[in-house]
Amino acid sequence: MGQHDRTADRVVSEKGLRMAGRGPSRQELIRRRRSSTFIGRHDEVAAFRDALRQSPDEAPQFLFHVRGPAGVGKSTLVRQLETVAREGQAVTAYVDESVADVVETMEVISAQFAQQGVALKGFDKLLATYRQRRHEADAGMATAAAGADAAAGGSPAPSPSSVIASQLGLVGLGMLPGVGAFTGAVDPNQVAAGADRAKALLSTRLRSHGDVELVLSPLDALTPVFLEELGEVARKHPWIVLFFDTYERTGPMLRALALSPDYASALGGRGGTYGRLGRYEEALADLDRAVELRPEYGWALDRRGELYELLGRYEESLADYDRSVLLDPDDAWTLRGRGKTHQMLGRYEESLADFGRAVHLLPGNCAPLTARGVTYRVLGRYDEALADLVEAADLDCGNAWTHYETAVVLHALGHPDRDRHLARVLELTPNGAPAEGGSAADIGNLVLAHCVWPRWERAGQHLAEFLAKVPPPGQMHELLVALRSLIPVIPSAESRIEELCRAVEGRLDAPS
Predict the structure, then answer these.
(1) Strand partners, 93
(2) Do 300 and 290 contact (CB within 8 A), yes or no?
(3) DSSP letter assigned to residue 184
(4) pLDDT (tens digit, 9 = 90+) per residue, 290-345?
(5) What is residue 172's predicted lDDT score, i.e. its pLDDT?
(6) What Cα–Cα distance (Å) separates residue 7 from each residue in 2, 11, 13?
(7) Higher pLDDT, 95 or 4
(8) How far is 453 from 490, CA to CA, in rounded Å?
(9) Which of these, 47, 38, 49, lies nearest to 86 by C-alpha position?
């Protein structure tokens, strides 16, 4: 009986150590058992193990290339090498032919790192944004495809991704994640023209030009953040070991790892990504360098102008947009960005000129129509405003801002259809924009919608949520402009509106 008790005590003690994280997990025990029974390729395993025993600066070999005919055990060897790397305290990831593209490759690596307690937080956040914007774009493309289906007499509608790719002229060329592998060359003029059509389609569904670029060129945004965080992991751990099984599918990930830090496009892409992540100083540093390397780089000038506008640095924003317009006077997106900056500066005639040109260049696109309609509304030109806004709303672009502005004009004209458009604002705002998930822009739309209804308690609640997001100065200033533009429309609500404005101004004036 005494011996039985001592044995029971020993088992409980060992179990307690494992629960505290001091002993090997069952998964690790299985891994070790497989390692001990592995037969073959001893020289390769020994060379790999020897490399891990040295510092990265001294290791004679960094790249191990396993090749041979099918069925000889290449994947088994690679898995064995991963076990050796884990035993050597390396952070590892294994990617095989099940991944479809570079975006998915980075996603798999990030997920496996997270399982080892190493999170790529910035990458994961931006990837989630990309997935959400891609979902929104797909929904819009599905609507467009359904319309095309009806016009074609009932032929099967293509997938949303195929709609985007066909507009670019890139079907089967693998330049969009999830579409296909690269198979040949394409006429660059066709790509350029298709890109403009794709941007026009996507802008009817997405919130900003930055979101359009994220969906069209996810690698430009995701890769720099992934590489930076990969480098940060490398600085904190002795080794990172990445295993790519079936190189012809995952090899592009190694072209991404070789990005040059002085390549203007890479810097511009990383700068745009930093901006989306709220890392504004780093964004400006990259965009400054990109423009320095390539002064005619219009895309970087546009992103920097957009960033300056977001930060409330309107004169600098205007200077960048002016430079970009000189480079390409017919870029509707640049004109739209400059028009908004003019709007924030109270230069409404200049704003109308830019938005009018953008409407001409992008016929049937709700974004510039809405922007011009807002300007007409602020100037008190309600009939012209209503014409633009109704046309934009009828395009069914899924833009909450379009429906909000339509509701404001209808309120000014005493039209009973106001509440339908306000209700549509709520329907189009993701999950009602709760404090945890909605963006500051989404929550700002709700503040304004409840002011027009009017539902002042709800407006105040949403304003508190908006401020809790710590939006940048330009976004707070934009909300102030929008709130005060309601006073001529709802004169009786001036004191209520000013109370909300004072809360925003208090945050703007607070030291950062």
Answers:
(1) 242
(2) yes
(3) S
(4) 999 999 999 899 999 999 999 999 999 999 999 999 999 999 989 999 999 999 99
(5) 33
(6) 9, 6, 10
(7) 95
(8) 10
(9) 49
* Three-state DSSP class for residue 91: strand
DSSP characters for 146-175?
Answer: HHHHHHTTSPPPPPHHHHHHHHHT-TTS--
Distance CA 30, CA 142 (A): 47
Instruction: Say how far residue 464 (Cα) sits from the centre of its chain.
Output: 25
Share of the chain above pLDDT 70, in %: 71
Q: Is 271 exposed, middle or buried (0-12, 13-18, 19+ CB in 10 A)?
A: buried
CB of 5 within 8 A of CB of 57?
no
Our measurement of the distance from residue 328's CA atom to the centroid of its chain's CA atoms, rounded to an integer in Å, reads 26
Burial class (CB in 10 A: 0-12, 13-18, 19+), 392: buried
Does the pTM surpass 0.85? The reply is: no
Q: Please report the sign of the dihedral spanned by the C-alpha atoms of residue 275, residue 280, residue 286, residue 292.
A: positive
In Å, how far are 53, 54, 60, 357 from 57, measured between CA atoms? 12, 8, 9, 57
Q: How far apart are CA 153 and CA 170, in angstroms?
A: 25
For position 8, what pLDDT does the model report?
29
For residue 156, the 8-state DSSP code is: P
Strand partners, 91: 240
C-alpha atoms less than 13 angstroms from C-alpha of 325 in its C-beta half-sphere: 18
Contact 437, 431 (CB under 8 A): yes
Nearest partner of 181 among 118, 102, 115, judged by Cα: 102
Helices and strands in the chain: count of H runs, count of E runs: 26, 2
Residue with tokens 């020994």: 46
Q: Two tokens at 462?
A: 């949403």
Structure tokens at 193: 């023209």
Name the packing angle between helices 418-428 and 440-452 (round to 10°). 160
Place of tokens 């690698």: 219
SS3 365: coil
